[in-house]
Amino acid sequence: MNLIILGPQGSGKGTQARLLADSLGLFHFESGDFLREVAKADPKIDEIINKKGELFPDQEIFALVTKYLEEKLPNLENFILDGYPRSVWQYEVLKNWLAQKGRKLNWAIYLTLSQEESITRITARRTCEKCDRVYNLVTNPPPTLDRCECGGRLLQREDDTPEVVKKRLEIYQKITVPLIEVLKKDSILLTINGEQPIEAILKEIVATIA
Ligand SMILES: [Zn+2]
After folding, report:
1. Any idea which positions bind AMP (predicted)?
2. Are 113 and 120 in contact (CB under 8 A)?
């Protein structure tokens, strides 16, 4: 079973990807972590992503992701991809590449969340300055309001303001809405209400794809 998972910031797709990987025995690929690791090992890539702040070219991400997947998972079966593909182009090339290997994507799980709820959740995010642990004042509160379990101070990221979150959501919508349409046409789209509790979402996904 090969899955991809999509959803706006705050939809909990990272959490669901981890839970699904555990409960279904899937290889979990997270594109953000992956690109950070790649940038650490390659100064040229680090320059583009972290110094110039540019997006990495689609063609090159595709080459890196597919090379990595084939190394980690030679038979290309039983994986969940989180954060990739996120555009129609990325999806189409991945689909064609898998088809050449005799493989396919079985489901694209799409977690929905209203803009209002997305902003509420993201602006409630707090990170410990000492251990980097992430809390959420709404969905995953710390033991005390301004302190981590380790005693460190909890801070809000500078770009987690409603204005910046709104802009990020608009960009996300512009890129992702066309992809959702294509996934629907390919009959692999599974839309799930991301405003339910974590356990309910997981249960619904597993019951549908099983
Ligand atoms: Zn801490």
Report:
1. 31, 36, 83-86, 90, 157, 168
2. no
Every domain of the chain and the residues it spans: 2-209
Residues 87 and 105 sit within 8 Å (Cβ to Cβ)? no
pLDDT for 54? 67
Helices (H) and strands (E) in the chain, counts: 8, 8
C-alpha–C-alpha distance, residues 22 and 7, integer Å: 20
Six-digit token string for 92? 């189409």
Quote the pTM value: 0.87
Span from the CA of 150 to the centroid of ligand 1 (angstroms): 4
C-alpha 136 – ligand 1 centre gap (Å) = 13
Q: Is 13 annotated as a binding residue?
A: yes
- Indicate whether 177 pLDDT > 70: yes
Residue 49 CA to ligand 1 center (angstroms) comes to 27
Asked whether residue 157 is marked as a ligand-binding residue, the answer is yes
CATH number belonging to the domain at 2-209, selected among 3.40.630.30, 3.40.50.300, 3.10.290.10, 3.40.50.720:
3.40.50.300
